[in-house]
Write a structure and sequence with these properties.
The chain is α/β, with parallel strands linked by helices. The protein has a single domain (about 5-220), classed as Rossmann fold. The protein has helices spanning about 15-25, 50-65, 85-115, 135-155, 180-190, 195-210, and strands at about 5-10, 30-35, 40, 70, 115-120, 160-165, 220. Strand 1 (about 5-10), helix 1 (about 15-25) and strand 2 form a beta-alpha-beta unit. It binds NADP nicotinamide-adenine-dinucleotide phosphate. NADP nicotinamide-adenine-dinucleotide phosphate binds near residues 16, 171 and 172.
């Protein structure tokens, strides 16, 4: 059955674009929220809570409610832990507080439809960690902890939540990694290759369609054995 899906992420690029393409080709209706003009509704996750709430309402009106919320947006900037705290706070806003504000604004619609929400995190937040990306890893760890806890509360309202945890994959976020660093990362991945956004999106969509009260709070990993 066709589902109404709100995707927080670029409509054309990266994992957001790949999930959108996979969902639309399977007959689902998608509304995207991102800064890009190609998205249905423009949203900057660094906006105030009120602004985020208004943009989400606009998107929900365009979609006519929502059965699923997919949060793929994220900032991947290398941020040294002793570098500017302003940059660190931006990272936390885009990767954690912004997505939580979107979830809060969407919650009424999800409760009405007894729907689900998928938060994209990253495998680098957990052991053995990512020495080059401690603040990014911390922001993704915060999402993971939020989902684990919130899932236990929201299941009483028949809303389920889960995290989708990819390893490294090709997208605009990793385009600027210098070749020597990319080679080091590749050698650390058991499969010895970066993932493909379309392949990950197909798996993520399958999870989205199947996740319900039985799987709520789970983290689904897609890391090529890492
Ligand atoms: N690529 C990897 O190796 C990898 C590995 C593990 C996890 N992840 C995670 O996977 C998710 C998708 O990333 P991706 O690799 O597909 O990278 P991407 O193509 O760079 O996607 C990042 C998305 O975040 C949005 N975004 C960034 N800052 C924003 C802001 N301030 N307000 C609103 N939207 C903002 C961008 O959309 P607009 O520019 O249109 O706003 C874009 O759609 C992210 O959460 C990332 O952390 C990526």
């Amino acid at each position: 059955m066709s589902r109404k899906i709100l995707v927080v992420g670029n409509r054309e690029t990266g994992l957001g674009g790949a999930v959108t393409a996979a969902a639309e080709s399977a007959g689902h209706t998608v509304v995207n929220l991102s800064r890009s003009e190609s998205s249905h509704v423009q949203l900057d996750l660094e906006s105030s809570d009120g602004e985020i709430r208004d943009r989400v309402r606009e998107a929900l009106d365009a979609l006519g409610g929502a059965q699923s919320l997919v949060l793929t947006s994220g900032m991947g900037a290398y941020t040294h832990p002793r570098a500017s705290m302003d940059k660190a706070k931006r990272l936390m806003q885009v990767n954690f507080f912004g997505p939580v504000a979107v979830f809060n604004a969407c919650l009424g619609a999800l409760i009405k439809e007894q729907g689900n929400a998928m938060f994209v995190t990253s495998s680098v937040y957990r052991a053995p960690g990512a020495p080059d990306l401690p603040l990014y890893a911390a922001s993704k760890g915060a999402v993971h902890s939020f989902v684990t806890s919130e899932a236990r509360r929201m299941i009483r309202k028949n809303v389920s939540l889960f995290t989708f945890t990819p390893g490294w994959f090709d997208s605009p976020m990793v385009e600027d990694i210098p070749p020597d660093r990319r080679e080091r990362i590749t050698q650390s991945i058991p499969a010895r290759k970066f993932g493909d956004a379309a392949e990950l999106a197909a798996f993520a969509l399958q999870l989205l369609l199947q996740s319900n009260w039985i799987t709520t709070g789970r983290s689904f990993e897609a890391t090529g054995g890492a």
